């Protein structure tokens, strides 16, 4: 299962399915529903995404989940139809809805232990600043079973250097936290007991900023990837001016509180 907890302006999403926090089809649906709530809640300004315990952030999808027998026609129809149109929870399923969901509210990732497969995809796709405990291990081992496509699903080459992306995707080998930092997969490696403290501090800092400014930064940044330089500049300028026209200059919550 997934836990969704709010404290002040920060919400924490925790993968909690021991022993190694694998994802089941129903958990992908729950993730989609949590992200919808997270995105719509105006009082929540930032998120933290982590795994319960120290053994694993998430070891990926539950390979023991039953896959129903389907004809070729049914497989194609299932692939092309949004998961929300089906009553059943199966693979492929709600993970596609999660990965296609627009998100302009920041999330801080906190990885502990194993971070493999779909867990690796979610960690990278659903977080913007990322911390790893020194015991974290990352990898995409699926290539050894002929399962490719994660690089495109993640646009991994936009996140890290091309050679690092190819090393992860084609060798299928595990990398430790320090190597993940060298690859720019994570921002910082910390002691396991400092992981959540570090992630929470970053989330609180983000949440202290005016939310409209954070939204403009997130959206203009994401949309600019597929634009020419001139279009990106125009979009940033328009969004900035729109936000400034309705939001007076004010100090962040942390500074305001200190001044008072």
Question: How would you sum up this structure, described in words?
Answer:
It is a single chain. The protein has 260 residues and is of the alpha/beta class. The chain has two domains: 2-207, Alpha-Beta Complex (2-enoyl-CoA Hydratase, Chain A, domain 1); 211-259, no CATH class. It contains twelve helices and ten strands. The chain has helices at 25-40, 72-80, 94-99, 117-125, 150-154, 156-159, 162-171, 177-182, 195-207, 211-224, 229-246, 253-259; strands at 2-7, 10-15, 46-51, 56-58, 107-111, 114-116, 129-133, 137-139, 175-176, 188-190. The strands form two sheets. A six-stranded mixed sheet has the order 1-2-3-5-7-10, with helices on both faces. A four-stranded mixed sheet has the order 4-6-8-9. A hairpin with a 2-residue loop joins β1 (2-7) and β2. α10 runs antiparallel to α11 (229-246). The longest helix has 18 residues, at 229-246. The mean pLDDT is 89. InterPro entries: ClpP/crotonase-like_dom_sf, Enoyl-CoA_hydra/iso. GO terms for molecular function: catalytic activity. It comes from Shimia isoporae.
Provide the succession of SSEs: EEHEEHHEEHEEHHHEHEHHHH
Provide the β-strand percentage band: 15-25%
Helix fraction bin:
40-55%
Task: Give the name of the CATH superfamily of the largest domain.
Answer: 2-enoyl-CoA Hydratase, Chain A, domain 1
Low-confidence stretches: none
Largest sheet: 6 strands, mixed
Could you please say which CATH topology of the largest domain applies here? 2-enoyl-CoA Hydratase, Chain A, domain 1
Q: How are the strands ordered across the major sheet?
A: 1-2-3-5-7-10
In angstroms, what separates the terminal alpha carbons? 42 Å
Q: Give a count of the beta strands, DSSP E runs of length 2 or more.
A: 10
Morphology call: globular
Structural class: alpha/beta
User: Counting H and I runs of at least 4 residues, what is the number of helices?
Assistant: 12
Cα gyration radius (Å): 19 Å
CATH architecture label name of the largest domain: Alpha-Beta Complex
* CATH classification, class level of the largest domain: Alpha Beta
Overall mean pLDDT? 89
Count of discrete domains: 2
Organism: Shimia isoporae
InterPro entries: ClpP/crotonase-like_dom_sf, Enoyl-CoA_hydra/iso
GO molecular function, one term: catalytic activity
Protein name: Crotonobetainyl-CoA hydratase/dehydration protein DpgD
């Amino acid at each position: 299962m997934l836990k969704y907890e709010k404290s002040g302006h920060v919400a924490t999403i925790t993968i909690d399915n021991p022993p190694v926090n694998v994802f089941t089809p129903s958990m992908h649906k729950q993730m989609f529903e949590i992200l919808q709530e997270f995105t719509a809640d105006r009082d929540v300004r930032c998120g933290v995404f982590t795994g319960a315990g120290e053994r694993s952030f998430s070891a990926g999808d539950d390979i023991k989940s039953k896959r129903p027998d389907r004809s070729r026609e049914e497989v194609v129809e299932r692939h092309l139809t949004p998961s929300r149109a089906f009553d059943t929870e199966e693979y492929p399923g709600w993970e596609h809805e999660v990965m296609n969901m627009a998100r302009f509210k920041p999330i801080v990732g906190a990885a502990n232990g194993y971070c493999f497969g779909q867990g690796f995809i979610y960690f990278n796709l659903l977080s913007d600043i990322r911390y790893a405990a020194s015991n974290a291990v990352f990898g995409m081992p699926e290539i050894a079973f002929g399962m490719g496509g994660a690089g495109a699903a993640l646009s991994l080459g936009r996140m890290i250097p091309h050679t690092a992306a190819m090393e992860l995707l084609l060798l299928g080998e595990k990398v430790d936290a320090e190597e993940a930092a060298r690859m720019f997969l994570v921002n910082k490696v910390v002691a396991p007991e400092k992981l959540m403290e570090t992630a929470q501090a970053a989330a609180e800092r983000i949440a202290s900023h005016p939310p409209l400014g954070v939204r403009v930064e997130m959206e203009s940044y994401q949309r600019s990837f597929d634009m020419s330089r001139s279009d990106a500049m125009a979009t940033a300028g328009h969004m900035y001016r729109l936000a400034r026209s309705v939001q007076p200059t004010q100090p962040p919550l942390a500074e305001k509180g200190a001044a008072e």
